[in-house]
Amino acid sequence: MSTDDTTTNDASTETESKCGASTSESEASTESKCGGTTTETAETTSDSKCGGSSSSSSSNGCGGSSGDDEEEVGATVDDFDADPGQLVAVGLGPGQPEGMTDRAKTALAEAEHIVGYTTYVDLLPDEITEAAEDIYDTPMCGEVSRTEEAIDRALAGNDVAIIGSGDPNVYALAGLALEIVESKGATASMLDFDVVPGVPAAQSCAARVGAPLVNDTVSISLSDHLTDMPTIESRLHAVAKEGFTISIYNPWSRKRRENFEKCCEILLEHRDPETPVGVVHAAGREDEEVEIVDLEDLPELGETDLIDMTTTILVGNEDTYVWDDRMVTPRGYETKYDY
Ligand SMILES: C[S@@+](CC[C@H](N)C(=O)[O-])C[C@H]1O[C@@H](n2cnc3c(N)ncnc32)[C@H](O)[C@@H]1O
Q: Which pLDDT belongs to residue 25?
C-alpha cells in the first residue's frame, strides 16, 4: 500500500539533498528528485559523510503524472566508498511525543540524519529535530525516492533514521527499505538495519473507543495504489464473512471515494446493520475526533471531515456491543467463567 497516500501531491519544489550518492568526491550534493527539503541543523556539513559516485539517488520526481511506478533505484553499493552507517526504521506511534516509545526517542536522538514525510517530521519533538545533523523531508509522495535517499545516506556513512507514523511494519516503509537495500547489492547487516516498533494506528484508535479488537482481528487498507481494488474487495468479503473484527486503514480520499462506498456495501452484505463501528480521526493528535456509530450509518460519514486519510475505522464482530459509550468485543471468557 502507499505509505503516504494522499489527496494532494505538492512536489513542485526540488531542493538539493545533502547526502545522496554524488558525482564527485567532495561534499557536493545531488539533487533530490522528490521535492524534499533538507534542513541542516548542525553547525556544519563539512564532516557529513557523503561519498557515493553515482549520478542520482532516484530517477523519478514525485507529483508528476507518472507517480511512483516509474521510480528506479539509482546508486548501487559499489558507488559508495565510505564505511556504511546504520539505517533504522522508527515507528512514531500515533503522533504526539508522549505516544512515542523511549526506544524510538533514543533511536532518533542517536541518528545523524532523519528522513521522512513532512507531516511526520513536523510531529517530532523539538529536541530531536534540533539535535539532528540533517533532516530530509518530502511531501506526501515519492516514498521510494525518500526511502532510497535514506539508504544512500546510510551507505555514505551516516547513521540514518527513516520515520513513519504508527509501526514500520504496518503499511509502512520497513519492507520497502529492505527491498531497496537488496536491489542495491547491499545487505541489511552491512547497514546494521534495525526496526524500532511504534504503536500502530489500529491500537491507538482502539484505545479511544474502549476494547473493540480484543479477539481475532484483520487489518485491511482501502488504498488501491499498490493493491488493486478487486483484490481488496475479495479480501473484504472473506474477512467480513468470517466474523473477524476489522481495522480499516486508508479509508478515504477524494480519489478513493468509491472504494469507501464499496467497502461499506460489502460490510453491510455480511454484517448486521447495527454492528458497532468505531471511527477515529487523528488519534493522539490535536484534531482527534472519535465516534461510535452503527454500521448502517457509516456510508454517510464518508462525506464528512471525520473520515479522511488520518482516520482508522474499527468494525466490530457479531459479538461486539456498545456499553457506556465504549465498544466491547468479548474475548470469550464469559463462556468459561462466571462473572
Ligand atoms: C500509510 S498508513 C500507516 C500506518 C502506520 N504505519 C501504523 O502503524 O499505524 C496510514 C494510515 O494509518 C492510519 N493512521 C495513521 N495515523 C493515524 C492516527 N493518528 N489516527 C487514526 N488513524 C491513523 C490511517 O488509516 C492512515 O490512512
A: 31
Are residues 208 and 318 located together in one domain of the fold?
yes
232 and 261 part of one domain = yes
Percentage of the chain beyond pLDDT 90 is: 72
On whether both 123 and 210 belong to a single domain, the answer is no
Residue bearing the CA closest to ligand 1, atom 25: 249
Q: Is 71 contained in some domain?
A: no
The response to whether residue 170 sits with its C-beta less than 6 Å from ligand 1 reads: yes
Q: Give the residue from 199, 220, 246 where a domain finishes.
A: 199
Looking at the whole model, is its pTM more than 0.70? yes
User: Which of 165, 199, 233 corresponds to the end of one domain?
Assistant: 199
Instruction: Say yes or no to pLDDT of 21 above 80.
Output: no
* % residues pLDDT > 70 (the chain): 79
Q: Is 254 inside any structural domain?
A: yes
Question: Per the domain annotation, does 3 fall within a domain?
Answer: no
How many domains are contained in the chain?
2
Q: Tens digits of per-residue pLDDT, 232-270?
A: 999 999 999 999 999 999 999 888 889 999 999 999 999
For the Cβ of 221 lying below 6 angstroms from any atom of ligand 1, the answer is no
Q: pLDDT per residue over 114-140, tens digit each?
A: 999 999 999 999 999 999 999 999 987
Q: Kindly report the three-state secondary structure assignment for every residue of the chain.
A: CCCCCCCCCCCCCCCEECCCCCCCCCCCCEECCCCCEEEECCCCCCCCCCCECCCCCECCCCCCCCHHHHCCECCCHHHECCCCCCEEEEECECCCHHHCCHHHHHHHHHCCEEEEEHHHHHHCCHHHHHHCCEEEEECCCCHHHHHHHHHHHHHCCCCEEEEECECCCCCCCHHHHHHHHHHCCCCCCCCCCEEECCCCHHHHHHHHCEECCCCCEEEEECCCCCCCHHHHHHHHHHHHHHCCEEEEECCCCHHHHHHHHHHHHHHHHHCCCCCEEEEEECCCCCCCEEEEEEHHHHHHHCCCCCCCCCEEEEECCCCCEEECCEEECCCCHHHCCCC
Q: Is the CB of 197 under 6 A from ligand 1?
A: no
Is residue 225 in a domain?
Answer: yes
